[in-house]
């Protein structure tokens, strides 16, 4: 009976507190209405296509209003060269029937020219009788189609012929170094561990058709706040070791459509004192999706 009594007492206290609560529920009024971007950032490929940037009106009922916008100076993407506003007026009109309207922007392709990822921003200058919301600037990143490593970037299906297992991993570009790539899951790391804080880099030699992955790399993630996940070399008998500074050489074939690991040695993601969280054997291959 003691347990039931205690629960009843808690419920009674909660009801009493609720009945005595003098705080009023916030009420949204018309004078609070505002216009704002749905997103603070958008990413789009350098494809020569159009991107639509949404602005939404927050109000009790849809309203008829004109929202003025402009390009923010100082972006790495140049208006007229890398992108073009489809409407030169710089005004987005809401007809009083919809809450969301779109700024159309043409992305200008630069075929064969490597510019790297570039950005521009658009800001809401005014919103008529409405306020300008907190999300008043939207930044658009134009991802370059002509990256030197474009052929090997993307998602792959990896296959371990010894264990008969397969998994998905991504090869990403480095934001600054065009000779470097990053593996999100090079050795069948358990899905519960995969993340942006456990990634490993490789140096790419396109002419030689190789990716040199330094052994002994440590993850940004720290197990128990102290111990990183180290990338190790293993043989097919699961004996593991590494010499810091040595490279694991992955071969690029079929123009980047396929990657091949050395036949005698694989990789392991290992936490010293806790064990491994993923491994693959020699002869592992990866096919681009």
Could you list some keywords that capture this structure?
Immunoglobulin-like; 289 residues; 23 strands; 47% strand; single chain; 7% helix; 2 domains; mainly beta
What does this structure look like?
This protein has two domains: 30-143, Immunoglobulin-like (Sandwich); 150-288, no CATH class. The protein has one helix and 23 strands. The protein has one helix at 2-20; strands spanning 34-37, 41-45, 50-58, 64-71, 83-85, 91-95, 100-107, 118-126, 131-132, 137-143, 154-160, 165-173, 180-183, 200-205, 210-214, 218-223, 227-235, 240-241, 247-253, 258-260, 265-271, 275-280, 285-288. Strand 11 and strand 12 (165-173) form a beta hairpin.
* Strand arrangement in the largest pleated sheet: 11-12-13-14-15-19-20-23
Number of strands: 23
Q: SSE order in H/E notation?
A: HEEEEEEEEEEEEEEEEEEEEEEE
**Hey, roughly how much beta strand do the residues contain?**
over 45%
**Major sheet attributes:** 8 strands, antiparallel, barrel
N-to-C CA distance: 63 Å
Mean pLDDT: 88
Low-confidence stretches: 1-20
Helix content: under 10%
Please report the number of helical segments: 1
Query: What is the SS-derived class?
Result: mainly beta
